[in-house]
Amino acid sequence: SITVLNLTIEDYIRDTISESICHGGSFDFGNKTLTVAGTYSDTTQTSAGCDSITVLNLTIEDYIRDTISKSICQGASFDFGNKTLTVAGTYSDTTQTSAGCDSITVLNLNVNEILRDTISKSICHGASFDFGNKTLTVAGTYSDTTQTSAGCDSITVLNLNVNEILRDTISKSICQGASFDFGGKALTVAGTYSDTTKTSAGCDSITVLNLTIEDYIRDT
For the chain, where are the alpha helices, taking DSSP H only? Predict the structure, then answer.
């Protein structure tokens, strides 16, 4: 009695797969939930009862983190993400990479204040003062705006005072043959004279003298 046996060998099935997950994510493989990059294997049974081995190469995609610093002038704004920012501070915006992972951008926003300065100046009547691109001769309050190195406004306010010329008129009488000292001169003749000196502010002070000569009285 002859029995013929045809025997076959079923190879085990081996499969290798590669997967990526985002930092902080997980991947279910076999009966495990994986969160760490590495190489893992899982063995199951085929319908013929043979091993089927799956090898997993798991990688972790790190999230991208970037920090930027920006400065704006007071009154200006900066667009970041879907917001328009006007106040100094630290802000973050999260977008997605091509792998679907988080890309976090951190913004340090600085707001440069407008510089304001007030100065006071005095000039003499008839003089002038250069301020900005103007030559001023009239008292008043003026402002000039320039740009700082950061491109922001720097406002200077000028309070300009104009000192008037001081004028004084005096009248004097002297006897004939006498003299009157006025402005470094000894006057003996009637007339109108003027002398100009400087005030403490450096401006003209003009004194006008009306000088009369009293005739001596002669009685016979």
Answer: none
Within 13 A of 153's CA, how many CA atoms are on the CB side?
12
The Cα 90–Cα 102 span in angstroms is 19
By the 8 A CB rule, do 142 and 121 touch?
no
Q: How far apart are CA 109 and CA 93, in angstroms?
A: 13
3-state secondary structure 113-167: CCEEEEEEEEEECCCCEEECCEEECCCEEEEEEEECCCCCEEEEEEEEEEECCEE
What's the token pair of residue 34? 């994986």
Q: Say which DSSP state 87 is in.
A: S
Cα–Cα dist 43/31, whole Å: 11
For residues 143 and 176, the answer to whether their CB atoms sit within 8 Å is: no
**Is 183:144 a contact under the CB 8 Å cutoff?**
no
Amino acid identity of residue 65, one-letter, is R
Burial of 9 (0-12, 13-18, 19+ CB in 10 A): exposed
How much is the average pLDDT of 125-138? 94
**Residues 24-65: tens digit of each pLDDT:** 889 999 899 999 999 999 988 877 788 889 999 999 988 788
Write the DSSP symbol of residue 74: T
Alpha-carbon distance of 58 to 72, in angstroms, equals 44
Distance (Å, rounded) from C-alpha 83 to C-alpha 93? 10
pTM beyond 0.85: the answer is no
What is d(CA 165, CA 193) in angstroms, rounded to the nearest whole number? 17
